[in-house]
Amino acid sequence: MAVSSQAPVNFSVAQRALHWLTVLLIAWQFIAASGFEAAEEARDAGTEVAGWAIVFIQSHFFAGFAILAFTVLRLILRFTQGAPAAPEGEPKALQLLATITHGLIYVTLLGMPLTGIGFKYLGLDFLHFPHVGPLKGLMIVLIALHVIGALAQQFYFKTNVMARMTRGV
Predict the structure, then answer these.
(1) Per the count of CB atoms within 10 A, which of 12, 39, 70, 138 is most buried?
(2) Beta-carbon neighbour count of residue 22 at 10 Å?
(3) Alpha-carbon span 47 to 85, nearest angstrom
(4) In a domain, 4, yes or no
(5) How many domains does the chain have?
């Protein structure tokens, strides 16, 4: 399939679906991580970990693998189907900030699950700190920048940027 040199007007249905599924999984990861931490504290205190704690732990692992797979699919779609161009008249500095933010989001969406897998399944203990520390913090900052940028596009610049990732233009 040939890739068009012209940028699409909006994201494809598959791109939008993967974006919003990833959003839901990331939200769940923060919830499950809280249950995960409580389960670890209980285990460290000598209490048996069971019930909902097991659900949180297992779902955290499952969601991490799903985020990794969805991110790979999203990157494939981005390279084969493209992405809409920046809104007309958008300042170059904001275009650069958006490009850097999106790039770092993809890096973090790959880095979080890979460090988790390395720590949990490969026994690479040194990967635990980046997983629960810097990468988690970076993800929170990037999500905030992404949401602020989308809201600024919608309400301040009055562009169709949010529509391209929700209903399509």
Answers:
(1) 39
(2) 19
(3) 54
(4) no
(5) 2
